[in-house]
Amino acid sequence: MIVEHLNLVDFRNYATADLTLHPGPNVLVGSNGQGKTNLAEAVVFLATLGSHRVSSDAPMVRDGAESAIVRARLVHGSRTVLVEVQINRHGSNRARINGSPAKTNELPRYAHVVLFAPEDLQIVRGDPASRRRFADQLLIQRTPRMAGVIADYERVLRQRTALLKSARARGIRGEGLSTLDVWDDKLVSLGSEIIHARLRLASDLQPPLAEAYSAIAGADHSPQLEWAMSVRGGDPEESPDEDPDTDAVSAAREGIEEQFRARLEAKRSREIDRGLTLVGPHRDDLVLRVRDLPVKGYASHGESWSVALALRLASAQLLRAESPAGDPVLILDDVFAELDADRRRRLATITAGYEQVVVTAAVEADIPEELHRHVVRIHAGTISDERTREPEVDDD
User: Fold this and answer.
1) How many whole angstroms separate alpha carbon 59 and alpha carbon 12?
2) pLDDT at position 106 over 50
3) CA dist 78 to 1, 81, 174, 326, 348, Å?
4) Which residues are known binding-site members?
5) Annotated binding site for ATP: which residue ranges?
6) Of 5, 30, 229, 293, which has the fewest Cβ atoms less than 10 A away?
7) Which helix (H) or strand (E) holds 377?
8) pLDDT band, very low/low/confident/very high, at 249 (cuts 50, 70, 90)
9) Mean pLDDT of all residues in 278-300
10) Would the keyword DNA damage turn up in this protein's UniProt record (predicted)?
């Protein structure tokens, strides 16, 4: 897939912006705070319906505006598709595909993007929410209908948690809250679908993760990933250092719904006491390991970066293998400044073979030579000085 043209209205620091992109590598150069990452964020939103920087949509709308528009002309082989999303500060977002109204969760069917960013280090070193967000955004790209499932789950979770808080305030305990059963049924149905999808994702990511890690790090440290799940009885949110029982995780592929329902029943009194929903995929964690040790707390800075990059590369390889639309667009947002020379070279070599790569950098010299081709300069929200590097000609 190729992003041929990007148009923004009232998005972040852009009142309006137009960016033409080309097949192969594209480099966006500008000092920090000029708007490079905002362009990357807009493209990523079309693919994941979310931001890699913020958890809500409102910050993406320019100050003083009520909505932002992101439009992109996408090329899938010989087919061109125009996609558009209106991001509203209040209320639901709206989408159009080839000029016709569409559901926003249809957008990831057309936009396939994998982003590398400094924030990726939080996937391996941050809290469980960072890893859940990584997994769920990839789920949406892999299976766009999961956007609706995840949104429905979050809505049910909010309503169920509100009911628990109301019960706590009114002093209701245990069996006195019969209306909770209806929300339990919805939570179990939607949550089990998310858990099953996440387990499949972890299994499918394992081979490309190991391959990508070796390519980035130049060593085989046996990277592994597995889900620690609250439906098994633990709580990764409250006991982050607890090792997942891999045999139990494998067994849990069967009977997820039954385990989910049993844990809700067992924790009902505690949930009412705390006014929180304590069981479900919103409490789970993706545990990452290298050399049989958890990355969080044990891996070096270089190993952590290698795992983070390998997760993104594995995601790209997975989407590349499964998508009839071809390669996903790779966006490398201010990543090279964070890497040593060896990892820069390795990452550039691996990514240069994709159909389209978009690189942002504050310092042009940070970008390896093989990714220099089309260069665009960004200054104070203005896109200018677009040029194509021509091969040097020997006058002699």
Assistant:
1) 7
2) yes
3) 10, 10, 60, 12, 27
4) 30-37
5) 30-37
6) 293
7) strand 374-379
8) very low
9) 93
10) yes
